[in-house]
Write the structure tokens for this entry.
Amino acid sequence: MTTRQVGTEYEELAVTYLNEHGLTCIDRNFRLDNGEVDLICRDGEYFVFVEVKYRRNRYFADILEQLTAAQLQRVRFAARVWLLQQDISENSAACRFDVVAITGEPFQIEWLKDAF
């Protein structure tokens, strides 16, 4: 299985988990040359831009440590472009950036709302 296939599998788990908690996924894998958003969801009035991370071991802190400032900046940039393409003002839209961390086999899911 390729890295992309593994990523897609765990993004599916994240979508299912978020749907069960009241969010609606409206877009996936929004990519630019210099940024990407794994999942874009709605949570009430909020547009939620979600970074999905998976690791086989259960060391949750390791996942968070792998989120670099540069990566978070690329996610924010991609989110701005997505909003512009949808003709949504980033200044008036309610937005949130979440992380869904999936660890272990069998997996555990940790959802960090407003993570960055």
Remarks:
- The chain has three helices and five strands.
- The two ends are 31 Å apart (CA to CA).
- The beta strands are 24-32, 35-43, 46-55, 94-103, 108-112.
- The longest helix spans residues 3-20.
